[in-house]
Amino acid sequence: MSSPSPLSNESIAPSSPETDPKRGHRRHRLVRSLKRPAQFLSFWVAIALPFVHLPLLAQGLGDPAVTLTFVVLLAVNALALYVGHGYNQR
């Protein structure tokens, strides 16, 4: 058997990141500073991607690789629309 620790549990401060207010504030500032550029990029990607879809549709979706590419680009376009929908709104 081991002997009890000389330190009580109350003397050890919790080390979770939620207890440090500076760390949470830094993370919040980082998210706020990245939000606008991410919305900007997503907005313009959502506008440009349909022009990439057109040649794929003109070629036809008979080839499985072309179909997969089209579906992946469609999913990326939907994600870009979701992320960029609030860009340039006050």
Number of separate helices: 2
Low-confidence stretches: none
- Overall pLDDT level: 82
Question: Could you tell me the strand content as a percent range?
Answer: under 5%
Task: Note the run of SSEs as H and E.
Answer: HH
**How is the biggest beta sheet arranged?**
none
How many strands in all?
Answer: 0
* Cα distance spanning the termini: 65 Å
What is the rounded Rg?
25 Å
Region (Disordered): 1-29
Biased composition (Polar residues): 1-18
Transmembrane segments: 38-58, 64-84
Keywords: Membrane, Transmembrane, Transmembrane helix
Mind explaining what this structure looks like?
This protein is mostly helical. The protein has a domain at 38-90. Helices cover 67% and strands 0% of the residues. It contains two helices and no strands. The protein has helices spanning 21-59, 64-84. Helix 1 (21-59) packs across helix 2. The longest helix has 39 residues, at 21-59. It holds the Pfam family DUF8028. The chain crosses the membrane at residues 38-58, 64-84. Residues 1-29 are annotated as: Disordered.
Indicate the topology.
Elements: H1 21-59, H2 64-84
Region (Disordered): 1-29
InterPro entries: DUF8028
Biased composition (Polar residues): 1-18
Which labels suit this protein?
90 residues, mainly alpha, 2 helices, 67% helix, 0% strand, elongated, DUF8028, transmembrane helix, transmembrane, membrane
Summarize it.
The chain is 67% helix and 0% strand.
